[in-house]
Structures are given as C-alpha cells and as structure tokens.
UniProtKB/TrEMBL annotation:
Keyword Membrane: yes
Origin: domain of life: Bacteria
Transmembrane region(s): 235-258, 270-290
Every Glycosyltransferase 2-like domain range: 8-169
Protein source organism: Novosphingobium jiangmenense
Name of the protein described by the UniProt record: Glycosyltransferase family 2 protein
Cited PANTHER family: SLR5056 PROTEIN, UNDECAPRENYL-PHOSPHATE 4-DEOXY-4-FORMAMIDO-L-ARABINOSE TRANSFERASE-RELATED
KW Signal (keyword) present: no
Keywords assigned: Membrane, Transmembrane, Transmembrane helix
Amino acid sequence: MTKLIIQIPCLNEADSLPDTLVALPRRIPGIDKIEILIIDDGSTDGTAEVARRFGAHHVVRHRRNRGLAAAFQSGLDSALAAGADIIVNTDADGQYAGEDIAKLVAPIIANEADLVIGDRGVGRNEHFGPIKRRLQRIGSAVVRNLSGTEVTDAVSGFRAISRSAAQRITITTEFSYTTDMLIQAGRKRFKIVSVPIRTNATERPSRLFKSIPQFIARQLMTMGRAYATYNPLRTFALIGGTIALVGLLPVLRFLALWAMGDGAGHVQSLVLGGAMIVLGTLTGLLGVLAELIGANRKLLEAALGHIRRLEQDIATLKDRTPPSLDWRGENGSDKEAA
C-alpha cells in the first residue's frame, strides 16, 4: 500500500488554512492512502485547532516559533514516522493548486524520481512582479550551478520526495529549506525532476522575510554554507588560491624593482605579499582538513539514515500491534516539539 502524506508548515494560518485543506485531493491514481500533516510553528491564532476541525490526520506543534526550515524538518521526521512512502510539502496560504499534487507525485510513483519540484514558471508567472521574476531566474541559475542539477525553480516550496530520499535529508539552515535541500540532493545524486504547476494569487505578505534585500542576503548565506558543507576542499582551495594570487602581486612588484636595482625601501611589499601567500596556503590546508571532516560527516549521515529506518520499522510494528498488546497504551496523532 502506497501512503502519501501532505505536510503543511504553518505560522498563524487559521484564516487561510481551511481553504487550503479543502482544496487538497482525497484520491490520486497510484496512491492508496492520503493523510494530512500540519506543522504548527508556534502559532497564536488557533491554527492547530482549525487543522483538526478541517480533517488533518496529524498535528505537530512547536511550543515556540522555530522557523520554516525547522518546521519542514519536523514535518519530514513526523511523516516518515507515520509511515509515509511519499511526502508532499505545500504552503498554507493557498499559493499552490492542490490538484497539481497528482502531477508532483507521478514521477515518484513511476520510480522515475527521488525528488520532484513544482515549477511555477517564474519567467512568465503573472502573479510575480518583474523584479521578482528576474531575481527568481538569477537565483535558480546560481542554485543549478552549485547543486549540479537542472532545477528551474529553486525556491519553490511545492515539492514531493520519496521515503528513501527523505531519510537521507537533514536540513541544517535556520532560514529556508528550499536551497539547502536542493544542494544536498544534488550532491547526494538524487534523481530530481521539475514539473510545471499552477499558482494562485496570495494577498498577505511573506512571513519568511521582511524585504527583498534581506531575503537575498539570507539565501546567499544559506547557499554558501550548504555548498561549503558538501564541497569543502573546492571552497577553501578557491578562497586560499585567490588570497595567494593577490599576495603574489606585491611580491612580483618587489622582485621587479629589485631587478632594476631599486629594491631598497620596498621590503614592505615582500612582507605583505609573503604574509598573504602563507595565509592562502593555510586556508588551502584548512580545506584538506574540512574534506576529511566531510568524510566523517558522510559516515554520520549514513548512520542517521539507518537509525531513522529502524525507528520507522519499530513505529510500523507498533501500528500493527493490537491495542490489547500495546503495553504503552499510546494513541492519537498529536505531537509536541520543543
């Protein structure tokens, strides 16, 4: 039996959540069971209660706001624990058309993809302004280069992921999961597919960021950090090589002056250049050390994946255990996270 869980991270979405839940599909070809998971990221407007009233099967509550990335990761962990074979993430504000979930999961059902990204057609989307369209195209191009993928809409939150792929993803950023997840997926050689989707106009401003410059700055930090995590040697070698090359210029200046008999009084160029070359070399050596640490990280990620599978196998066995044999006497689908 193939089980799909649709997860929706929420922060004070009591007003918009009902329409979003009503629009979600209840039947999809190739899917035997569909459940809805709400991640209430510290809402104060009764979002969790609204979710239960409108048929959410699972509700995970953060006692305080922890950010979109943490909410997304909590959703993945809870969906896997609930036995999801496919997980779809969508927004609570109704930006994405619920009917398009069938298009998202189709490549995974056909075993043609590990991760499917909904492409909003940012270059021609009528709900985006001209500046946003241009920034989206530039940002997606940067992410494609960093991740080694062909994703055309890198920051789309409408995406589907298979169970095996979700077990290997751990979001490390505190801002947004979108680019971090793609860079991880690209470096872990996931099969990634983009499918065109429809979008709806949203009235309220984004709660993720206060201004476009802030969004750009935080996304650049997220992309840089994620890339350095999975390509440490290349990152530090590039930085160290740049410093060393800049340091080589004053050294060459000194040598040229010295060759012309005018080296006296220009020793500071030699000292400065030498210091920068040493600094560049040390930075490159840090890259070697970071690469070795990265090998240890891969072992830890593999161990984490095995632990997740064991936990989920135990949860599956618990679900199959008759209530009279469940010595813990646990039931219900609400969970609370710190």
